[in-house]
Amino acid sequence: MKTDRSSPIVILTGAGISAESGLATFRDQGGLWEGHSIEDVATPQGFHKNPDLVFDFYNMRRAEAAKARPNAAHNALAALENAWEGDFLLITQNVDDLHEKAGSKRVLHMHGRLNSALCHECGSHQHWEGDLDRDCFCTSCSRPALRPDIVWFGEMPYDMDAIEEALGNAALFVAIGTSGTVYPAAGFVMAAASAGARTVEINLEATGNDLFEDHITGSASTAVPAFVNMLLGKA
Ligand code: BV8
Ligand code: ZN
Prior knowledge:
This protein has nine helices and nine strands. It has helices at 32-35, 38-41, 44-49, 51-67, 72-83, 98-101, 160-169, 188-194, 220-231; strands at residues 9-13, 88-92, 107-109, 112-119, 125-127, 146-150, 172-176, 198-203, 214-217. The longest helix is centred in the first third of the chain and has 17 residues, at 51-67.
């Protein structure tokens, strides 16, 4: 597939790109949703009902993500962004910071980030590294009103305007390591395709999502570097 280096690229990543860095996905064997019900830990209602359970769930994941290292797939996407002459946007559904650790600059975390806390009183976002709990104070309004800066089910994902604009201009849309289960992210391929983009899916197994023109099956740490080399004409 020949893509001119000045044409706009939009990449969407999901939990599968971080699996080889040791971070559990959601819906695979042994995934995050096996131990917990989505309603209890990933909805505003669940947080309201039992905030400590939700704080613990994200504290455990924040600690794991802090120790995790980017793998060859994250590094390849950072190299692609660096080498690309056209517009490049990396949208991630992931809440870990492995893309940033790999050197990616233009990253939109549409489902939020583990290393950020949100104040539900004043709405401020603040960088957060350690454990978060109900007694932590907001650095802006000093009230004990912080929650994980995560987009839960029923909440509006972040940066949707920028995302929709980029999808409308994309010449190439690549979805990596996502099951295509969660909306609106799962609908991005349709928006890109209707704007005339070439659509490629890279996944450990074929998801059968025939909205994608090309399907590359393989683990991200192998398939993504190979794909990037091909795009950069190094293959
Ligand atoms: C909203 C929290 C509306 C963070 C998450 C239609 C339109 C709009 C909404 C809906 C709709 N239908 C239903 C909805 C509601 C809902 C939804 O989509 N429900 C689903 C379950 C049907 N959507 C929402 O609620 C969204 N909000 O729409 O708001 C609104 C409108 C106006 C005003 C207010 C509100 C919010 C969605 C965000 C929810 N938050 N997580 C966290 O805890 O991390 S979603 C959660 O699932 C994660 O964020 C994750 O990113 C996301 C998707 O999962 P994946 O990343 O795909 O991971 P998964 O485990 O599923 O798959 C892994 C894949 O990797 C597999 O395919 C596997 O094969 C592959 N893989 C594994 N290993 C490897 C690999 N690939 C390559 N290499 C490997 N080594
Ligand atoms: Zn505040």
